[in-house]
TrEMBL record:
Recorded superkingdom: Bacteria
Family of the protein in this entry: Belongs to the transglycosylase Slt family.
Name this protein carries in UniProt: Lytic transglycosylase
InterPro entries linked: Lysozyme-like_dom_sf, Lytic_TGlycoase_superhlx_L_sf, Lytic_TGlycosylase_superhlx_L, Lytic_TGlycosylase_superhlx_U, Transglycosylase_SLT_dom_1
Length: 671
């Protein structure tokens, strides 16, 4: 048998970064590598890369290296490339917009947007133009160009600033709600503060919230909008040593002095909190307004909670009903959940302090239902559980179990028809996205793909997800299918590529394949060459040092770091490490999942601070690292669904979460 070119493996080669400029001239054989070894007559094919596509590739490299003359020279040829011809010109236009020494190429920009019509790049260059216009003071042009489809904080702040500068009355609270610490938002905020449109209390709220996140640079910039030069010296002094600065202060009289003293007192929470509590009570409690003192106690509670200290509740309970950030309200509830035994009345009170919007989040609906049930109000508790039982998440699953019902999988929708798939395949935006994925350009491919999904019906989204599955772009299968609203296809949302190979590796070392799949779905969305911002690689997102350590441990003598994205190597090392972490943490999937993400030592530290045995759900909800807390929820929720899909049998999330008991040992030999 003669087989020509397997399109399927052409795409895998692309995504592995080999950069083969295959023309796609022949059909798909659909063979696995093992099958391809038999009855195959190998023939030589001369592949002539499309010169216009080559020009696009060279143009991107020139853009990345800031070789602008080279980029400009490549634009004419690159513009002839099918699907991707506009990218080189976009890169050049963006350079011209961001270069103050270059006149704005108005005619070229307008022609580009007209030529590309509804394409992603037209919207992107419109966004870039709005930001550049606002920066240069051309406010009329920024307003004229608005709105854009795929907006962001820079664009939103640029438009609001421009409207203000043109004399339109703008709302200060709208500006505060839009604000993110990016350049145009700072420009907007500076101007609106100067014109007294954003006031003192709004700035104080922003400053307090920013200090909670430990973003001290942003906090200092906000403080400079509130305080004069002398007061900023005080701010810098108490940020360095709050007790020393406070020792030289009298009872505050002015609004600014009260704010400074209150902030300084809150910084004492980073010292010995018991000692500093007595100091505040004896020296300052009667010198600042009650609301400010209660905010200080809320900060003491937050720092204690983030350090997983059981006495965090003592400060939270002193904080009364003072409004807090959503972040701090959440930690007030979590601090109550870590008590042994749990005081469910206090849990419900803490949730009631939240805004209605925050209370409506499934996490707090569930825990409020639990608090009602613990207080004997089963009927009301059921109403809360029922309100989230169709939420396909960690707390939706737990709510079903509280109702005594099996965790459901929604009925499969009608399969995508050939006509629906053909329409998706013919969509220029999806075609462009696929081409970009084939080149390995994920930074361009993902927004291009997502932009194209806007306005699609559920059936069109299912077809787009099915196209992504056909193209083996598995993260887009999941993320696209998750956008449907009235139907849910779990074969897409919980796609299981490489199923036989991953499951076999898991079973060899007595690991639950569903758990491994749940972890991979969260780690990499099945992108074999995924790389995180901290350097973790591959399907199971292994850090280089961990990969080397595991390879030595299991006797993989030929391992080198370049192999970490290899499917077999990554899954062997990843499953082996996961098994080591599981064994080190007494077989608890909760602790091991947290340990895989944050390090097994941290799981041991958090467990060591428990006052007594707790539900796995309580332990999970009170993990102090936001990333790890969400990670554990997603992985274990995923695992339940994968287990149901693999086995066809009902599953229990509660059983998987189990109970976590204190263990004072904090030592681990694992990296």
């Amino acid at each position: 048998m003669v087989f020509k070119q397997c399109q399927r493996y052409q795409k895998l080669w692309w995504r592995a970064g080999l950069g083969l400029l295959l023309a796609g001239v022949l059909g798909s054989a659909g063979l696995e590598p093992a099958a391809a070894q038999e009855d195959v007559e190998v023939i030589n094919i001369t592949i002539r890369p499309d010169p216009s596509l080559q020009a696009v590739i060279q143009a991107r490299e020139a853009m990345q290296r800031k070789r602008w003359d080279e980029l400009e020279a490549l634009v004419p040829q690159a513009s002839q490339a099918p699907l991707l011809g506009s990218y080189a010109e976009y890169w050049l236009l963006r350079r011209d917009l961001t270069n103050p020494a270059t006149p704005v190429p108005t005619q070229r920009l307008e022609r580009f947007m007209t030529t590309n019509e509804d394409a992603y790049l037209a919207d992107r260059i419109r966004s870039d133009w709005i930001v550049a216009a606002a920066r240069s003071g051309d406010y009329a042009k920024a307003v004229e160009l608005a709105p854009v489809v795929a907006s962001n904080s820079q664009v939103d702040c640029a438009v609001l600033l421009s409207r203000h500068m043109l004399g339109e009355r703008v709302n200060g609270q709208v500006a505060v709600d839009l604000f993110e610490p990016v350049s145009l938002c700072w420009m907007m905020l500076d101007e609106l503060v100067d014109k007294n449109i954003v006031g003192w209390k709004q700035l104080e709220t922003m400053l307090r919230a920013t200090l909670e996140t430990s973003k001290t640079g942003n906090a200092r910039r906000l403080a400079a909008l509130m305080f004069d030069a002398g007061q900023m010296k005080s701010y810098a002094a108490f940020m360095k040593n709050p007790r020393q600065w406070l020792a030289g202060q009298q009872a505050p009289k002015t609004t600014a002095d009260i704010a400074l003293v209150t902030l300084a007192l809150s910084r004492l929470a980073r010292n010995d909190r018991e000692v500093e509590t007595a100091y505040i009570q004896n020296n300052w409690a009667s010198s600042i307004p009650k609301a400010d003192l209660e905010w200080v106690w809320g900060q003491f509670g937050l720092i204690a909670a983030l350090n997983v200290e059981p006495n965090a509740v003592q400060w939270y309970r002193r904080s009364g009903n003072i409004p807090k950030t959503d972040y701090n309200h959440a930690w007030e509830v979590r601090s109550e959940l870590r008590q042994a035994p749990i005081d469910w009345v206090q849990v419900s009170r803490a949730i009631q302090k939240m805004t209605p919007r925050q209370q409506a989040e499934p996490v707090w609906v569930y825990w409020y239902g639990r608090s009602l049930a613990a207080q004997g109000n089963e009927a009301a508790a059921r109403q809360y559980y029922q309100s989230i039982q169709n939420d396909y998440s960690f707390y939706g699953q737990l709510a079903n179990e509280e109702l005594g019902q099996p965790i459901p999988i929604p009925p499969a929708p009608a399969p995508v028809t050939p006509q629906e798939l053909a329409e998706a395949r013919a969509n220029p935006g999806l075609q462009r996205g696929i081409k970009l994925f084939d080149l390995g350009w994920r930074a361009e491919a993902v927004p291009e793909w997502n932009f194209t999904l806007r306005g699609m019906t559920d059936r069109q989204l299912l077809a787009a997800a099915e196209l992504a599955r056909e193209e083996q772009i598995f993260d887009r299968v999941v993320n696209t299918s998750l956008r449907t609203s009235s139907i849910a296809d779990f074969s897409q949302r919980f796609v299981a590529p490489f199923e036989g190979r991953v499951s076999a590796k898991a079973r060899e070392i007595n690991l639950d394949p569903a758990w491994v799949y749940g972890l991979i779905r969260q780690e990499s969305r099945f992108i074999t060459d995924a790389r995180s911002r901290v350097g973790a690689s591959g399907l199971m997102q292994l850090m280089p040092a961990t990969a080397r350590w595991v390879a030595r441990k299991i006797g993989m003598s030929d391992f080198n770091p370049s192999m970490v994205n290899d499917f077999d190597v990554n899954t062997i090392l990843g499953t082996q490490y996961l098994k080591m972490v599981l064994d080190d943490l007494d077989g608890s999937q909760v602790l091991a999942t947290a340990g895989y993400n944050a390090g097994p030592g941290r799981s041991k530290q958090w467990r060591a601070k428990l006052l007594g045995p707790v539900e796995g759900a309580v332990f999970t909800e009170t993990i102090p690292f936001t990333e790890t807390r969400l990670y554990v929820k997603h992985v274990l929720s995923n695992a339940v669904y994968y287990a149901m899909l693999f086995s066809g049998q009902p599953q229990s999330l509660k059983a998987r979460l189990d109970t976590i008991s204190p263990n004072r040992s904090r030592r681990t030999n694992l990296p």
